Amino acid sequence: MLIRPINESDNKHIAVILRQVLIEMDIPRKGSAFEDPEIDKMYESYQSNRSIYFVVEENNKILGGAGINPLRDGDSDICELQKMYFHKSLRGRGIGNKIIELCLNFAVESNFKQCYIETMPNMVNAQKLYLRKGFNYINNPLGNTGHTACPIWMLKNLV
C-alpha cells in the first residue's frame, strides 16, 4: 500500500471512489461533498502552497484519500481536513490514522493554527478517529464550505 500526493492522472479514479463511498454512506447529494465541483478535478483543487491531497493506492488502484485546504471564506489560520473517504476494503486497517497524521503534519508545516472538519452523524467511526486525533465538537459551522447537509462540526488546535 502506498500513500502519496495526488497526481493529475488520479482525478478520474479518486472521483469514482469518493462518489461510491458517499453513496454507500447514504450522504445526501445536495449540500455535501457529492456536489462539489472539485471532485472531478481533485488534483487541480489542491495546487496552492497551503494545500495537499493524499491518495491511498493498493495494487495499483486508488482506494481513497484525504486532504488539507485553507478554509473557504474563513480565517486564514484555519485549514479544513477534506474529502477523507476510503473504499470499504481499506477501513479498519489504520489507514485513516496514517493519512490524518500526514494531513495534520502538513497543516502545521503550512502554519495553520487550527484544523476544521465537517462530517455526518452516521459516520460514527470517523468521529471516533477525529476525537482520538484531538478534534473537538463545536456548535456551529465555520467558513463557507457549501456543505449545508453536514451537521457535525469539529475543530482541532494545531499549536
Description of the molecule:
The chain has 159 residues and is of the alpha+beta class. It has one domain: 3-Layer(aba) Sandwich (Aminopeptidase), CATH 3.40.630. It has four helices and seven strands. The chain has helices at 11-24, 42-45, 95-109, 124-132, and strands spanning 2-5, 52-58, 61-70, 78-86, 114-119, 136-138, 152-157. Strands 1-2-3-4-5-7-6 form a seven-stranded mixed beta sheet, sandwiched between helices. Strand 3 and strand 4 (78-86) form a beta hairpin. It is globular and about 40 Å long. The N and C termini lie far apart (31 Å). The model has no long low-confidence stretch (mean pLDDT 91).
The secondary-structure element order is EHHEEEHEHEE
| Cα end-to-end separation | 31 Å
**Outline type:** globular
Number of strands: 7
Biggest pleated-sheet summary: 7 strands, mixed
Give the full name of the CATH homologous superfamily. Gcn5-related N-acetyltransferase (GNAT)
Widest β-sheet, arrangement of strands:
1-2-3-4-5-7-6
Residue fraction in strands: 25-35%
| CATH topology grouping | Aminopeptidase
Oligomer: single chain
Provide the gyration radius in Å: 14 Å
Helix- and strand-based class?
Answer: alpha+beta
